[in-house]
Amino acid sequence: MPHSEVWARGMIDRTTIHIAADEAADASRQWDFAPPFTARITEHDMFNPDPGLGSDVVRDLLTMCFSLPVCDGFLTWGFSDQRSWVGNAPFYFSNYTEKPATAVYRDLLFNQWFTRGATGTTGSDGSVSIKVWQGIHNVTVAA
């Protein structure tokens, strides 16, 4: 039974899905939520010590989460290896030098997904459609 149907029947109010690193690229198959239900990644951490695999997992999880309208958050556990409960945080080594996943995170959020300088021209009916990243946006209209 899909999660959305279980929730709609009032049987549960939350669920947990654990995704192993080798499943991350195909994790969207597990997300069958439907509005008004939301999902969020709340305990992202890494058990595999391979920083290259870690950056792939971060890329895949962030892409999955931010591409699904029902996903409203991404929280990672353990900022550095020194502070991680498993001794292997996704973003920083124990000496706080960056792992490859940090560059992936930064590139996706700040270079690829953030909305900057979006412009458009209105049609004859006065409307314009511009793809923007979710959030609060200030719009200036000039003649």
Overview of this protein structure:
β1 (39-44), α2 and β2 form a beta-alpha-beta unit. By secondary structure, the chain is of the alpha+beta class. It has a two-stranded parallel ribbon. The protein contains three helices and two strands, in the order αβαβα. The longest helix is centred in the middle third of the chain and has 17 residues, at 51-67. Mean pLDDT is 75; it is low at 3-13. It has one domain (3-113): TIM Barrel (Alpha-Beta Barrel).
The average pLDDT is 75
Inertia-based shape: elongated
Question: Could you give the order of strands across the largest sheet?
Answer: 1-2
Query: What is the number of E strands?
Result: 2
Order of helices and strands: HEHEH
Distance between the termini: 53 Å
Query: Helix segment count?
Result: 3
The CATH superfamily label reads Glycosidases
Q: Which structural class is indicated by helix and strand composition?
A: alpha+beta
Helical content class:
25-40%
Largest sheet: 2 strands, parallel
CATH architecture descriptor name: Alpha-Beta Barrel
Low-confidence stretches: 3-13
The CATH topology turns out to be: TIM Barrel
* CATH top level label: Alpha Beta
Please indicate the count of domains: 1
Estimated radius of gyration: 19 Å
Content of β-strand: 5-15%
